[in-house]
Amino acid sequence: MAKQEAKITYQDKATQTETEEEDTIEKLLKAITTLCIKVDSMDNEIQKLKTNEDNLKSKASQQHDYKNAELRRPEDGKNPELKRRRWETP
Predict the structure, then answer these.
(1) CB count, 10 Å around CB of 5?
(2) 13-57 pLDDT, tens per residue?
(3) Cβ neighbours of residue 19 under 8 Å, at least 6 residues apart?
């Protein structure tokens, strides 16, 4: 009878160990899934920020071009002396 009690205890311990391992694996999988979701979310946010940055750079460039166009007078293009000086290196 002592052998049978010892055998049952061993089986209970083995079952308990398997259950603990399964719980640990399940917790690890949940943690990995959560991390993957967060990484995907961060990647989406980074893409939005990059797009926003590109849009702002484009707007700034367009505004810069517009200001340069406003500053340039039509007569400047007709005067060869001014045209030559503009493109000469100092």
Answers:
(1) 9
(2) 667 777 888 899 999 999 999 999 999 999 999 999 999 999 999
(3) none
User: Would you say 76 and 82 are in contact if contact means Cβ atoms under 8 Å apart?
Assistant: yes
Task: Identify the domain containing residue 33 by its residue range.
Answer: 2-87
Distance separating alpha carbons of residues 44 and 47, to the nearest angstrom:
5
SS (H, E, C) the chain: CHHHHHHHHHHHHHHHHHHHHHHHHHHHHHHHHHHHHHHHHHHHHHHHHHHHHHHHHHHHHHHHHHHHHHHCCHHHHHCHHHHHHHHCCC
- Give how many domains the chain has, as a whole number: 1
Q: What is the pTM of this model?
A: 0.47
